[in-house]
């Protein structure tokens, strides 16, 4: 299976399936069908079967999918069958919320460092972390071999922060700053801008 040949839109649906399967598992369910899974996530059964079959045959005709088995396979495909360390850059309201958020750990991620360039924030506690100076960010992230980071700085600072994260060896960036950032081809970026999503929804409102 060549990951580069799988459309990104399919990769984007796999975490949605995994989340639904986790909820089913928590209810004590052991098996499910593409029809039932589709009802949980709002995606057609045919689309789910097509998506999952890109990675192998994980279900049986007539009996459906084993929930524990499919969860394990999706975690393996998404590389979340291990824990990923994440750095947060920007100790404002959003950075505080992300550093304190308890929902990452059961999905394969843990925040391990928080950085800011504001002298009044450096050295302050945010949850379990002490805010560190962004001047030390490159060496600290590089030494810890951290590959993932979240940017929660103002738009004007986002590109400079991204450049330094790339310099530190980060390969995946979740960008909460309301601006696009440019990175090398081997670095993956996801943009999270609530205003953009709100605008997408207001199209449907009177």
Structural description of this entry:
It is a single chain. The protein is an alpha/beta fold and 206 residues long. It folds into two domains: 3-77, Winged helix-like DNA-binding domain superfamily/Winged helix DNA-binding domain (Arc Repressor Mutant, subunit A); 84-196, 3-Layer(aba) Sandwich (Rossmann fold), CATH 3.40.50. It contains eight helices and eleven strands. The chain has helices at 8-26, 34-41, 45-53, 67-77, 93-100, 137-144, 155-167, 194-202, and strands at 31-32, 59-60, 64-66, 84-89, 109-116, 125-126, 129-130, 132-133, 148-151, 172-175, 188-191. The termini are far apart. 25% of the residues are buried.
SSE layout and pairings?
Elements: H1 8-26, E1 31-32, H2 34-41, H3 45-53, E2 59-60, E3 64-66, H4 67-77, E4 84-89, H5 93-100, E5 109-116, E6 125-126, E7 129-130, E8 132-133, H6 137-144, E9 148-151, H7 155-167, E10 172-175, E11 188-191, H8 194-202
Helix pairs in contact: 1-4, 2-3
Output the helix-strand order. HEHHEEHEHEEEEHEHEEH
- State which percent range the strand residues make up: 15-25%
In CATH terms, what is the fold-level topology of the largest domain? Rossmann fold
Question: Helix share of residues?
Answer: 40-55%
Unreliable runs? none
Quaternary structure of the protein: single chain
CATH architecture grouping of the largest domain: 3-Layer(aba) Sandwich
Summarize the biggest pleated sheet. Answer: 6 strands, parallel
Provide mean pLDDT, rounded: 92
Q: CATH first level of the largest domain: which class?
A: Alpha Beta
End-to-end CA span: 46 Å
* Total individual domains: 2
Give the overall silhouette.
elongated
Give the radius of gyration. 19 Å
The strand order across the widest sheet is: 8-5-4-9-10-11
Got a strand count? Answer: 11
CATH homologous superfamily title of the largest domain: NAD(P)-binding Rossmann-like Domain
> How many helices in DSSP terms?
8
Structural class: alpha/beta
């Amino acid at each position: 299976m060549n990951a580069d040949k799988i459309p990104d839109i399919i990769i984007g649906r796999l975490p949605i399936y995994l989340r639904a399967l986790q909820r089913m598992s928590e209810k004590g369910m052991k098996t499910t069908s593409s029809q039932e899974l589709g009802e949980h996530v709002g995606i057609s059964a045919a689309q789910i079967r097509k998506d999952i079959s890109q990675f192998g045959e994980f279900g049986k005709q007539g009996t459906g999918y084993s929930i524990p088995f499919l969860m394990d396979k999706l975690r393996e495909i998404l590389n979340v069958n291990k824990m990923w360390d994440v750095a947060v850059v920007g100790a404002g309201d959003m950075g505080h919320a992300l550093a304190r958020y308890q929902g990452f750990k059961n999905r394969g991620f843990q925040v391990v460092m928080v950085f800011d360039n504001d002298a009044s924030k450096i050295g302050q506690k945010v949850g379990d972390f002490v805010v560190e100076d962004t001047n030390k960010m490159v060496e600290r992230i590089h030494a810890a071999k951290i590959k993932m980071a979240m940017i929660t700085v103002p738009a004007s600072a986002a590109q400079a922060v991204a450049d330094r994260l790339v310099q530190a060896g980060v390969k995946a960036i979740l960008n909460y700053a309301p601006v696009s950032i440019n990175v090398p081809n081997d670095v993956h970026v996801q943009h999270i801008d609530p205003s953009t999503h709100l605008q997408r929804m207001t199209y449907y409102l009177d």
